[in-house]
Amino acid sequence: MARELKLAGLSPRMLPKGNGVICDIGVGDRVIALRADLDALPLPDTKDVPYRSTVENVTHACGHDVHTTVLLGTGLALAQLAERNELPGRVRLLFQPAEENMPSGAPEVIAAGGLRDVAAIYALHCAPLLPAGLVGVRSGPFTAAADKIEVRVTGRGGHTARPHLTADLVHALGRVVVDVPSLLDRRVDARAGVSMVWGAIHAGDAANTIPGEGTVRGTVRVLNRDAWREVPNLLTELVHSVVAGTGAEVEVKYTRGVPPVVNDRLATAIVAGAAGAALGPERVVEAEISMGGEDFSFYLEQVPGTMIRLGCGIPGSDQKFDIHQSAFDVDERSIGYGVRVMVHTALAALSAGAF
């Protein structure tokens, strides 16, 4: 990637850890950033194609290889425009690591100066449920914040024949699992888009023994920024109130993940117009809201911007792929569509002068 950019006469610079690239194209005080994420997932690649993964149990099951290829192609096209003095400003390419991990790579890019002088930022994500050739855009909430919660209860265990002599931790955990999400639904505005789901629970091993410790872990997803900021304290309060009558001790560990992606209205209008100019207005559709998390949100906490969905579904295929699946595949024509959209977006954003 960096090699290809250098061959095009550009001056890419590596991130301090050597795991990502920042590259400016053109000149001027006005900077528009375009971001692509680099990492893969720890899954086997089960598809039989020439471009299948060459690393065992690692594959691009979220389309990040497409994102990276699109941004590289966009950079090469913009470099040609800059050589002809046809680029009305500066475009910054951000090849970001670790979108799938926590801590994620976006704060690392920001700390390395990725957003310095940036007026707006744009990104795309593969959408296998959209056919190749379509682009999904949406203003406002786009993806959810994604946090984790762990509740640990402790107390005096004992024989299941005499629960009154114990703190019945399994019962306490049951109340947490059932009551806390229900109470949360009634303490937060339904329009905030809060979803709490437990994914793991453990307490004891024997059927006739009340354990002395138990845990339950889950995720909390929120579409509204204000609600996201309030949820940790509210959930801690609810857990303590639910467990209070059981005699158990309780500890709540709430771990922040990523904020919600909330697309800027003007930035979304610009990319919608650019996509229409690149592919035709009939190929621009409204994107659905996703409860998945995306660390592009960290950039949007700093500057306005928007993320779009790039249709990569294979027309006529009986298989309906989704991301994070070993068999995930794309229609490679989506790469060309993505390049055209991002080039038009960069030019439109540089010319808009609205940010």
What does this structure look like?
Keywords: Manganese, Metal-binding. This is N-acyl-L-amino acid amidohydrolase. Its cofactor is Mn(2+). Mn(2+) binds at residues 62, 64, 100, 125, 324. The strands form four sheets. The chain has an eight-stranded mixed β-sheet. It has helices spanning 2-7, 64-83, 106-111, 169-187, 225-243, 265-279, 297-300, 333-352, and strands at 13-14, 21-26, 31-37, 90-96, 118-131, 135-137, 140-143, 145-154, 158-159, 194-202, 209-210, 213-222, 249-258, 261-263, 284-286, 305-313. The chain has two domains: 2-143 and 260-352, Zn peptidases (Aminopeptidase, 3-Layer(aba) Sandwich), CATH 3.40.630.10; 145-258, Alpha-Beta Plaits, CATH 3.30.70. The two termini are 30 Å apart. It contains eight helices and 16 strands. With 355 residues, it is an alpha/beta fold.
